[in-house]
């Protein structure tokens, strides 16, 4: 008997999964609304993706195919660790191919390959509240959401433009869901924001430490906040990938020497590798 | 040349192997047993049980051993284990008035029924390193004993209560909310605040309590009574129709007497702060009582002075060291993607500024 035989499928007990699924259903019913849930202590620290792990555990079925990425890559240490956790506790098939996955747990990226119907994206969320750094009190921000009182956010974006000439938010760029709730898309680069809109995949967001779950059902309208005269721009490094030559993918900058040398490579390693395969 | 970051899995395995080796330390030095930690590092074990919210000295000792003595890491191990345990039953409220005390002191009365019992305390030790302990000598001579005094040890605040000098602590049969099964929602009632504080970080709660003593929501606390001892835990068995004792636990309870409230129409009364923790953890219990009292400002008709210890949302959102350490330490995880986005942004903002400066020249 291994140490994990003592635990239920996908680690969480069925009662806990039911509790999470109820929160997920409510979240899907009210897109962009943050649903409180009784987040459990997980065997990895808060901040390592405990919200995402709980959502994945509650969604996972024995025939699912799981992909886990961190910073777009399948082989970053925490992605490896979370993938191995579900291999040990649920014995599910895993993949690095976006197209082959039924559930994709991610930290900080949305894959480059187009998602399809039936897929579930699970985002790890550190601070679910888009208004948190404007108003630290949860009691106050919940009231602001209830009244759709988002003036503070508009003022913040305006002040950015006045001070810097553009909106000084490069990741976790706030969005508005179906014209109602302002939502934090998790710390994905704003380059990924357009992929949230009208996506055929179900998008689930889990914040373990903050005990919140929210969701975007398939084909939800998601707009990045902006102004008519300062429209949203999904920016990336103005280069092509130095490995696969892709010009449309999000790039990591890698320092190669101490003389200012650098190269740019796809952050989505599975995407990059598939293109290398095509070229070969 | 760029080498794709591969081999995360092997790196993790190697790190774990190295960690295991470091945990054991020099193998020529004999290994610590769980019993040694439980018996000789008792106060560390108690802290892990209190903040881990699980009363099991052996598991707490195991966690301390596994965590290499990092108590927050040990508390985390206990929490992660605890959350997987089924809830078989809820106990009846423990009766701390019937506690078999090993320590019981009052700072408000020189003597009271039941007496003052110093117990095994550091209070009057001189903090001089005892180099004899380095010699791993024999066990110390047994402490002198006396026959147990069968006299009851009633709560000291009960005497004040009888005279109406202190606010009544009204009993309630309401089932308190469960922080570990429901998300924390604010405002919280006192039961929930106490639940949060008792598993809160000792250092954080201590710091907050200290701040009240220095004037940030000062509430003039006297330790009316501090008692440490064992209480029976009883569970109602429906099939039997009565409660059965399932074991004993050690608790520390602190009741403070705080400055009074009152008005022209209402006679003045002292007010209360309350702390209750697992094991012998009196620094934590006293701190908890002071913070509890500070958080009661609204109910007692006091002003909110903006002091951190009065701010329920601030205190409850930040006192859990497992949440705090997780979020703090996660910033060492990869953030390449976010940082890249910031790099692009700052380059763009700077480029715009430079072109404006050039245009001005």
From TrEMBL, chain A:
One of its GO terms (molecular function) is alpha-D-ribose 1-methylphosphonate 5-phosphate C-P-lyase activity. It is an enzyme of class 4 (lyase). It catalyses: alpha-D-ribose 1-methylphosphonate 5-phosphate + AH2 + S-adenosyl-L-methionine = alpha-D-ribose 1,2-cyclic phosphate 5-phosphate + methane + 5'-deoxyadenosine + L-methionine + A + H(+). Keywords: 4Fe-4S, Iron, Iron-sulfur, Lyase, Metal-binding, S-adenosyl-L-methionine. Its EC number is 4.7.1.1. Pfam families: PhnJ. GO terms for biological process: organic phosphonate catabolic process. The keyword Lyase applies. Catalyzes the breakage of the C-P bond in alpha-D-ribose 1-methylphosphonate 5-phosphate (PRPn) forming alpha-D-ribose. Belongs to the PhnJ family. This is Alpha-D-ribose 1-methylphosphonate 5-phosphate C-P lyase. It comes from Paracoccus caeni.
From TrEMBL, chain B:
It comes from Paracoccus caeni. GO terms for biological process: organic phosphonate metabolic process. It comes from the Bacteria. Keywords: Lyase. InterPro entries: PhnI. One of its GO terms (molecular function) is lyase activity. This is Carbon-phosphorus lyase complex subunit PhnI.
